[in-house]
Specification:
nine-stranded mixed beta sheet, Immunoglobulin-like, 59 strands, 867 residues, membrane, alpha+beta, transmembrane helix, CarboxyPept-like_regulatory
Amino acid sequence: MKKDFKKSLVLIFLLTGFLMSANFAFASSTDGTINSSNKYAWAENIGWINFGTINGNVHITDVSLSGYALSENIGWINLSNIANDGEGHLSGYAWSENTGWINFAPINGGVIINSAGEFIGSALSENIGWIIFGGDYKVKTDWRPRSARPACNNAIDDDEDNKIDYPNDPGCDSLNDTSEIDSSGSSLPITVYNAPIQPESGNFNISIQNDAEYINSRTVILKLNGGADAKKMAISNTGDFLDANQENYQAQKEWDLCSKNSGFIKLPDCLDGVHTVYIKFYTQYGQPSTVVSDQIILDTKSPEIKIIDKKDYYDIAQDIILNIETETKAEIISHWDKKYGSVYANSQGKAIINLNKMLAGKHQLEITATDLAGNKSKTLAIELIIKPLIEILKIEPDVILKEPQQPIIEKIKPLISESLKLIKEEKSEVIPVVPKELQKPITEKAKLLIPEFLKPQEEKPNEMIIIPEEAPLLIQKQWKLFSEESVKSFVLAPLPKEIIELSEKFPELKKTLNDVGILKITDLEKLKTVELTLPGLTERLGLSTYKIESEKFDLPMGIPVSQLSLENKKLIPSEIIFAKTSKELIDFNISLSVTEKGELQQKITTISGKPLQLVIKQDKPVKSIKGYLILKSRKIQKTSSFFFLESAINKIKNYFPINFIFTNPVLAESQKESAISEERFALSKFDYTDLDNDGIYTAEIQMPLVDGKYEIVTVMNYKDPTLGKKEIKLITVVDPEGYIYAKDNEKEIRIPDAIVSMYLFNFETKKYVLWPSQKYLQENPQTTDFKGTYSFLVPTGFYYINVKAPDYLVYNTKPFRIKEGSGIHINIELKTKYWWLKIIDWKIILLIVIILFLLYNFIRNKIKRKF
């Protein structure tokens, strides 16, 4: 009987075990099940979902989930398509027959299993909405992320012996053993408790978006450097790492700036501003590094554009300048008339758009701005209206000047009236009833006490760079305007006829061109960066008496044309303009250069207001030779005294149709062959004369008082009508007279009655002597006028200038050399004998008194406290 009872008892135990194995699974940290007390998640639209049903048999491993969850409203949910990365980050989709797919890693959501085995986060279904894990009710498992499990149960070869976990690794006594190191062998390595070793390149490092300062997306790329022994890492947006899990170390990782739980849960809102990402690196033994971080500014808002000073319309003669306000350092792109302009706003968000002059009519301008984060503004489209001032009259080349249609006095009347009005307004501002300083607020008055060098400098807005909309043909790889045969013939073509003729007339030039290898047309490129010097008339004829290395000291002196012998006159090259001054006693050497267009250009330099004698020899009989002095460009120094004068000159030019057209030859060229016309502003017209009928024509002109770049055009009208006309151009650079001045608060004050002496080096005595100016029809020394001006026209030699003036220190310039006939016009600053007294004005004295008074009170109060 007892035996039967024992058999029955054994049978009952076996049957019970079988039943339990059919309905229950033995759980572990590597193959977990759902806790019977914590098994519910909440769905917005269907209520509770049970992940721990008996028949659902949910399992969690390091790789995936399996089993079913149950909802009373939608039925069973299949979890077998959900993946696990080993650290609890779930991804993939669950399936419900009644509602479809459920995403366990949606944007702005996601589900993870933390180190406590709790499901946290949210999943998303298109039909039933969000499923929330966490809160008062939760889903919990006994599975744990690898980084939270003991070393002998984390599926990682922690001791790098190619054996993993219990029972495969002999260093593991059980699944709960925290070390895989074999205790029967040697002791633990010394490095077990060491922090990670810093990288060879420097410190531990994290870089957000390649160290960019701004970004317009919350998703960034992190570049990490944890050193050679970094095996794990933890990343957080808060710095306390409370929601961070350890994960395998990697050198690059995508990261969300507004996330938690190691970036797995993305918050719905992400505000613009500074965002910081923190990281720690771990060794294989779990030792952490110091915390390192990096910052980036999130900016998702598009910049705005504001035009400050747009006018209703603009004149055709004025530059179109717009002041723009937008975000700091934003790039501003403008598009108009098939052109693009680019400019960056300064640190105050300001920029200047200069569209230059435009043709009359309506123009469409489009402006966009891109900030530092890459956000683009809406396109600001505006219309610019350009109104014409006056029609420019174009005249045939034969007509040099056209008489005005209206009496001059009638046209000048409105200018005089406006000028008087401006002068009256200016005077009223100079002598106000109440000083302007007293009319300013107290804060403005206080600024007057601050010295200029202590005042912060305002940052000037950047100016725009203009780029054509259509790229040049060469860049487009469409440069096929010429056949290969044409290109070959051009490359091998000889020098232009004008250069060959010029080199025949000047043997020195011919020798130079041969020596430097300028033999064909393509060699002209070498001359674009250099200037050659053609000798003056006297030197060309071999009559110069001055040589620096000669033992005998002779002053160089030009010879007037009237004193040349018949043999010398025959040697004068034809069709070349020679320039002289001081009654032809000083020759100007001619600078020869090649322009960007590949054209030869002759140029001389002289001083404003001085006479200039011109000499030219005919090559064939002529009826007449006429000359024109043409303004090419002006150089007006814009001090406060000249703004009104410049405005008046511009208005006079607009009122009078004194523009005329010239062809654009190089040296001497037939007008009939020239198809290019240029508009020029003619200052004067003059005639060349040949009094002794020797074929050599001369003319004398007075150079303008305004310094600038001028062009002397000589037109040779031949007797033979088949030859037409020839033009010869000579560029003349007119420099201003030199002046003597002193400085007062950064302003220049001209010094009258200063004595300016020019000294010349005498090679016989080896001393400087007063330059004998009488031989050159000039004065030396000179006394400056009320404008403080002086000037000398001198021949070749070594010189220095001495300046004396009452109440000023004597000044001597450094010695300088004149290589050719040229003007001396150096601006010289004199120092007063007591110049240091001018540094201290009443504002600085008042500031010093205030500082001393404050120091006195401070010291007195300190002494009182001691006693």
